[in-house]
Amino acid sequence: MSKIKLSEIATEPPKKFEKDEIKKAKEDILKDLNELQNLLYASHEHSLLVVLQGMDASGKDGTIRDVFGALNPQGVNVQSFKVPTKEEFDHDFLWRIHQHTPAKGMIQVFNRSHYEDVLQLNHPEEKIMKARFKAINNFEQLLAEHNNTTILKFYLHVSHEEQVKRLTERTKNPEKMWKYNPEDFEKSEKYGKFQKLYEDVFEECNEIPWTIVPADDNWYKEYLVAKICRDALKDMNMKYPTLKAVASES
Amino acid sequence: MSKIKLSEIATEPPKKFEKDEIKKAKEDILKDLNELQNLLYASHEHSLLVVLQGMDASGKDGTIRDVFGALNPQGVNVQSFKVPTKEEFDHDFLWRIHQHTPAKGMIQVFNRSHYEDVLQLNHPEEKIMKARFKAINNFEQLLAEHNNTTILKFYLHVSHEEQVKRLTERTKNPEKMWKYNPEDFEKSEKYGKFQKLYEDVFEECNEIPWTIVPADDNWYKEYLVAKICRDALKDMNMKYPTLKAVASES
User: Fold this and answer.
1) For a Cys staple, A57 with which of A166, B88, B157, B243, CB 3.0–4.6 Å?
2) Is A92 close to B138, i.e. CB distance below 8 A?
3) How far A126 CA lies from chain B's nearest CA (Å)?
């Protein structure tokens, strides 16, 4: 497979999709998702890990609110990974991540993730980067093989223009100002460099594949993430435990 | 390398070692160990993970008390791994282990460890066992490569006769009765089967090597564990941070 070039991948929905139809389809998917989540929780054999990555203002928070907010919070945990604390920094980079991997029956959403450690502009030398990619692959394999965890990795792909528009909105809309960070615009100028880092990640850590989600339009982004989660849960072929099975366990 | 046969390895100290001399040597080693621990804590770049495995009554608790009990408890943590809790069991088998890996500057002692999951008589099928061995190797590599952790793995090698003697002592000595478990004698009858499981572990998980410690005599066992820990810390070539370096960091 040749290396993915993000600049060649659309950030808008494919033309055939029509906003109102997709919004309606999403509502149906969320109903399925709700039922499947209950089944995941009840059957208690699988778990789902949703990794959300994307540049600033790519819509990670909105995805969490509008997709996973529709589910029973008893079965969903969200963990945001910010700058590591001193204690976290004193351990290997996967230490803080591993603590939040999903228990059987649960959906865990990562708002940013272990991938932050291979997405730094001032990244360490090649040898260390390669070792981190390998460690990440091993880690994801551990979860998949030894705890029946399905891992869905989403890159929310927003155009530079849309990113700048959203960041500017943060400086003007009182309800969004709390999200404003003076560094955001500096980082936005390095959009191309971050894209390159992501392209490396897609190449090196694709044993469990990434989905690149066109994210300029929220309605399409939410639809696609919800749909992929729904399909993944469906593929688990779960069954409600019967009364008999419950009785024999106790 | 041909497979290790535990039945061919002595459980007594080599003849050239004399008890009184060794006890005196151990005292000197513990002094070194104390100084090196302080240096580990102060320099804050490395960490040490000591994995203690061995059959029931092989002397794990005693090793912890008599070797690591001599150190500053601020820099040493001990974690015992017993039967997994329900929450632990709902995650991959390394989840509970990873939480207790040492922070930089620290010595962490595991009283039993992740190896318990490949040392069960009713073990899962070969394919799953192989996957666990691989996951363990990857996990240890993660700690070594990504947090500067030196891992020392000790198998306390006690003879079946000595084990039975110690278990019997537990039924008679009021200070040891709390350790008695009716299952101990049943498990002791399967000494040979457990040895086979350990031999598989030594073969499959030797990227970070094991030390087989003759453990019929406590004085030799303690000496050897202390010595190997001392030597490992010495090999880290640590230096106290100077005043200048401290100032420039703050």
Assistant:
1) A166
2) no
3) 14
> Using CA atoms, how far apart are residues A79 and A106, in angstroms rounded to an integer?
13
- Contact assessment for residue B190 and residue B248, using Cβ atoms and an 8 Å cutoff: no
Divide the 250 residues of chain B into consecutive groups of 10 and give the mean pLDDT of each group. 90 96 97 98 97 97 97 97 96 98 98 97 93 98 97 98 96 92 93 97 97 98 98 97 66
How far apart CA A114 and CA A53 sit, in angstroms, is 10
Question: What residues does A212 pair with on adjacent strands?
Answer: A155
* pLDDT of res. B142: 98
Rounded (10°) CA dihedral A135, A140, A143, A146: -70
pLDDT tens track for A119-136: 999 988 999 999 999 999
B91 and A132 within 8 Å at the Cβ level: the answer is no
- CB distance B139–A143 less than 8 Å? no
Q: How far apart are CA A196 and CA A12, in angstroms?
A: 20
Whether the Cβ atoms of residue A64 and residue A78 lie closer than 8 Å to each other = yes
Return d(Cα A186, Cα A194) in angstroms, integer.
12
Structural domains for chain A:
30-237 (3.40.50.300)
CB contact under 8 A, B146 and A132: yes
Q: Rounded to an integer, what is the distance from CA B232 to the centroid of its chain? A: 14
Min Cα distance A103 → chain B (Å) is 5
For chain B, list residues whose CB is within 8 angstroms of any CB belonging to chain A: 44, 87, 90-95, 98-99, 101, 103-105, 131-132, 135, 138-139, 141-143, 145-147, 149
**Cα separation of B217 and B215, whole Å?**
5
Q: With CA atoms as reference, report the closest residue to A155 among A211, A101, A115, A205.
A: A211
B41: which chain A residues are within 8 Å (Cβ-Cβ)? none
- At position B137, the amino acid (one-letter code) is N
